[in-house]
Amino acid sequence: MNLTTIKSIDRIKSNTIILCNETNLSPLLNDTEKTIVKRYIESDHNQIELPGAEFTTWVFIFEPDYETEDFRQKGNEAFEKAKKLSAISIDLTLLSRENAIAFAEGLSLSSYSFLKYFKNEDKEKEAVKLEAVQLLHSEIATEDIEELKATNEAVFWARNMINEPVNAMNSVTFAKEVSEKLTTVGVEVEVLDKRQIESLRMGGLLAVNKGSIDPPTFTIAIWKPENAVNEKPYALIGKGIMFDTGGLSIKPTPGSMDSMKSDMSGAAGIAGAMYNIAKQKLPVYVVALLPATDNRPSGNAYTPGDIIKMFNGLHVEVLNTDAEGRMILADAISYADKYDPQLVLDMATLTGSAAVAIGDKASVVMGTAANNIFNELENAGNMVYERVVRFPFYKEYDRQIKSKIADLKNIGGRDAGAITAGKFLANFTEKPFVHIDIAGPAFINEPDGYRTLGGTGYGVRLLTQFFKNISKPVKKS
Hints:
This protein is an alpha/beta fold. The protein folds into 2 domains: 2-139, Leucine Aminopeptidase, subunit E, domain 1 (3-Layer(aba) Sandwich), CATH 3.40.220; 148-471, Zn peptidases (Aminopeptidase, 3-Layer(aba) Sandwich), CATH 3.40.630.10. Helices cover 35% and strands 20% of the residues. The chain has 14 helices and 20 strands. The protein has helices spanning 31-42, 68-82, 97-109, 120-126, 142-163, 171-183, 194-200, 203-209, 265-279, 325-335, 352-358, 371-384, 417-426, 460-471, and strands spanning 2-6, 16-20, 47-51, 56-61, 87-91, 132-136, 188-192, 217-223, 234-238, 240-244, 286-295, 307-309, 315-317, 343-348, 363-367, 388-390, 408-409, 433-437, 443-444, 454-455. The strands form 4 sheets. Strands 7, 8, 9, 10, 11, 14, 15, 16 and 18 form a 9-stranded mixed β-sheet that branches. Strands 1-6-5-2-4-3 form a 6-stranded mixed β-sheet, with helices on both faces. Helix 10 runs parallel beside helix 13 (417-426). 50% of the residues are buried. The mean pLDDT is 96.
């Protein structure tokens, strides 16, 4: 889909969508049409179709109390009207710049589909036809359109990786995909293979990988522009479990294991954010670390009762092999110390507890970082509607992960499961730390507006906005 701006709309020559409200109708409507629209508004219609000789106009009504997210959802509604057309012109002149951009974002994010495995006739039937979207708004600049395009590309890439099954994308092909994509925008990438991971003694990653026929990978991606506002990097860690059976603590299939190709959504989201940050040339120094493997129950798989020596030297008693994400993240979090980061942030589909607590409408955040970091994350999340909910991180929760025979155990019991998982990870760095559990919003089984079926790409927009906000120069009074 190609987004462009225009200076006028000729309704005789194009299908058109007009946004207006009952007190302010678009000048593109003639008096007769305004009368028709007002009549429909009085009957509580929020979409009015005005057929023309060759092209159609749809009038979308917005309410005075609409928030920015409501305009993203209006964009999704517009997409549903226009997806089988080749082109559409959209009059956004009655919206603020912020809301006009949100509308365009909702429309464009809605255009994603994953049709790779359909036969050609079904693929053609389901494919989006809409190629050209022309936006009429005097304040939308070329830079705004380029940012939207970059974000869409990054989100769609993350969604594609999440939606790929493990027989098409394992740890090796994932690392290759990330390396090839990120290097196109100037990110420095290194992929460590199993031999190198063994030489580093990353016990957690190697333990989880023992049941797999595919080797693990550890991808390091660095974006360090000359104009970076920070000397010490932000370290981003993404959970890359390419498929999670639960290992020997095997999951039931219906509603549990069947969607576990999505257990690498954290790594996909971090990779997508890195791409977007570099594509938009944000002046921030960021390092991404992406450990990847699948978790399978082979004869050589790690077992409940095993004690694993981690990269930082701590010993972990394994009581549940389905608590594997924290094992691979812990090694990566410790490895991040190599870069002396000012913040360590991980993103992971880590616990069902997080999803049970707040569903798929937000992620759970917690950690040891200063309050201003959490405030910035919350602000960024509200701006792009990838919201975060902060959980407590009381020291009393530490007791639940103390082992009687090792430094730690890898589960803390039923109560506060999302928090004890975060507490486990906090043991592997002394740097300010943020844990984001995206188990709820990362993968959905039904479309939700512009959040399309399957992988949502959650985190790409959140982290991009977070770094946009914190890298802006402070205005002098």
